[in-house]
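Example record for the data management plan.
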Amino acid sequence: MIIVGLTGGIGSGKTTVANLFLELGIPVYIADEEAKKMMHTSKIIKRKLIKLFGEEAYVDNSLNKPYIANIIFNDKHYLQKMNAIIHPKVAKHFNTWILKQNTPYVIKEVAILFENNGHKFCDQIITVVAPKATRLERVLKRDKTSKEKVEAIMKNQWSDAQKIERSNFVIHNKSLDETKAQVLKIHEQILHSV
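Corresponding structural encoding:
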């Protein structure tokens, strides 16, 4: 079974693309969603995050996202340490998940696929890109956050150019119809390569 990594900067439209692959019957593993679940359900991860960030990391047994976000986006050292706690657990969970799939390929959607070396475990890679202004607008509307916070996240991610250079496919996500056509074309190309 082929593992196809799906990545792109914040607000590029990875979720839209992932959903289009789901419509084609391709299983999609959303790494960020699984990581969020594990930060709430895994006692080991919770203990390690409290050790890293202090007791304020959890409030009423829930992850204190604003507190942690403020720390990790102002100090990459903390971001790397947090990723080192969570990513191995997510990778292990993905390896269990993939055994239950029965399709020629699966999609593994990871926002920081290259940044955490996840691309090394993928057979092919799709990068989703969109103009920076469009991405900012989407995230501000979706997350009710500040432009500064979104730009801080963007700075912690690889540039589109860096991702494109290492990708097999690039989806330019400007309009839904164009994106659908690109997804269908890539889907057919992957099936022919299996």
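Summary line stored alongside the record: Residues 74 and 152 are 8 Å apart (CA to CA).
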